[in-house]
Amino acid sequence: MTMDAVKLVEVGARDGLQNEAQALPVEIRVELIERLAAAGLRTLEAGAFVSPRWVPQMAGSDEVLRRLGRRPGVTYTALVPNLKGLDAALEVDCREVAVFAAASEAFSQKNINCSIDESLQRFQPVLAKAAEQGVAVRGYVSCVLGCPFSGDVPVVDVVRVARELYAMGCYEISLGDTIGRGTPGSTRRLVEACASEVPITALAGHFHDTYGMAVANVQAALEAGVRVFDSSISGLGGCPYSPGATGNVATEELVYLFQGQGVATGVDLPALLEAGAFIDKALGKASASRVATALRSRASNQ
Amino acid sequence: MTMDAVKLVEVGARDGLQNEAQALPVEIRVELIERLAAAGLRTLEAGAFVSPRWVPQMAGSDEVLRRLGRRPGVTYTALVPNLKGLDAALEVDCREVAVFAAASEAFSQKNINCSIDESLQRFQPVLAKAAEQGVAVRGYVSCVLGCPFSGDVPVVDVVRVARELYAMGCYEISLGDTIGRGTPGSTRRLVEACASEVPITALAGHFHDTYGMAVANVQAALEAGVRVFDSSISGLGGCPYSPGATGNVATEELVYLFQGQGVATGVDLPALLEAGAFIDKALGKASASRVATALRSRASNQ
């Protein structure tokens, strides 16, 4: 496998904003996504069809999807917890959706109020209808390297959920280190185990920088053959059950990491930095991206 | 080569504090170093015998060295720019000193006011007298993956300086990515090139986290065979020529990284976190360590 190129899945406008305390209006979210797409990102989470009572940050996701200008080669995706969510996504002509499972029973219960098996059963009709409608489905597996409630998560549990989601029709399985506990060794073992049951081209890495390990884990996954990575502009997001913890690895860091090794991302870093500055300002907070912080400080000293 | 163990060189009390805006009194610096040694660090930078006019943060380094309680197996080191510095170090019975060279002409001129060759010549009598006195000398090479003034630095220039310092009698050569510009690919190539001229057991990695790449670069160097790494408690320090930029990789991050892979460091993480909290409070600033931030937030939520 060549290391020529990777695909970045930008999760800032959904996974990122969903885990920020502040809910942003539709206009800001649309502008963020448009800026990120203009910077060269080709797959972008745009919203979630979940109850705004539980997730106010994602209210108006239908409106976000409706307003986004279609761009050739760009896919806007939405999280759908069930058939009702899928129907809402179909109504706004969303061509890719995602379902969210956990590798840890404790996290599944706490996060989506059902067992892992119940969640997989719930996704069956979603996958069936999506297939019927020609809509691609991505599967997320959370807690792949540890659970905030139960601690260690056996690799076999991750492999089982990844395999079932893939068998069910998910075209890509995103392996999420929800609490950022992994290190390069455990990341490598995880990828190797999952790749024994799911084609490695169907695996994606989703790392959190809670302990500063995300970039090293992405590199380990890259070297193990993974070519799809989730990241979040300005490092938006986090885990709602780990207050104070940093969240998703910043898209800026991954673009810098890959550029430095000649691995193409298709992303224009200066345009990406501007998108980051835009959302930092909207949220009124400092960037969690070290690349953004360093390059802005350099620019302001020139 | 086994991946059983690494040696960490704690640079917080010298390289770290020297690059903080605030100068701390001797008592605080002594307590910091004592706490770090108690946490299990075995080689610790304790001061620099340079002019307090230029580096007020290192004033009283003789007093620091004098006050430190000797511990079996623990080495306190000092930076010495010249023979006068070495004499001052000898006076307080310092058993290991370090000299500081650059791989970039522009940086050498700006930082130590002389060419690379002039700096190497200046170190000759230092190395000779240190050998005579049975004092170990470590050599630093800065700008190994880029220079803040001249940009790219050819690997051959790094190899030359590393080789000359080693030939001159430095027992260990610390390769410093002063501006944190490296990525795992360039780090690996650098280590391989240097290891072709200097035994890899005599090479150390010194990474800055300016662009969030330090942990990934340490991992790349580890996989390339390096077993000695410099780090700074709480991520203290930075580069005086890159304002706003984060500095040295945090010791907490490296301990977490290595622990996660079963690589022994000899360091007790809870004790290390306490040493970090101590110096954060003394400086009145937040930790730059993500491990420290995450673990403290977890502890305060329990």
TrEMBL record, chains A, B:
Residues 6-273 form the Pyruvate carboxyltransferase domain. The keyword Metal-binding applies. SUPFAM superfamilies: Aldolase. It comes from the Bacteria. Keywords: Lyase, Metal-binding. GO terms for biological process: ketone body biosynthetic process; L-leucine catabolic process. It is an enzyme of class 4 (lyase). PROSITE patterns: PYR_CT. Its EC number is 4.1.3.4. Pathway: Metabolic intermediate metabolism; (S)-3-hydroxy-3-methylglutaryl-CoA degradation; acetoacetate from (S)-3-hydroxy-3-methylglutaryl-CoA: step 1/1. GO terms for molecular function: hydroxymethylglutaryl-CoA lyase activity; metal ion binding. NCBIfam families: PRK05692.1. Belongs to the HMG-CoA lyase family. This is hydroxymethylglutaryl-CoA lyase. The lineage of its organism: Bacteria, Pseudomonadati, Pseudomonadota, Gammaproteobacteria, Pseudomonadales.
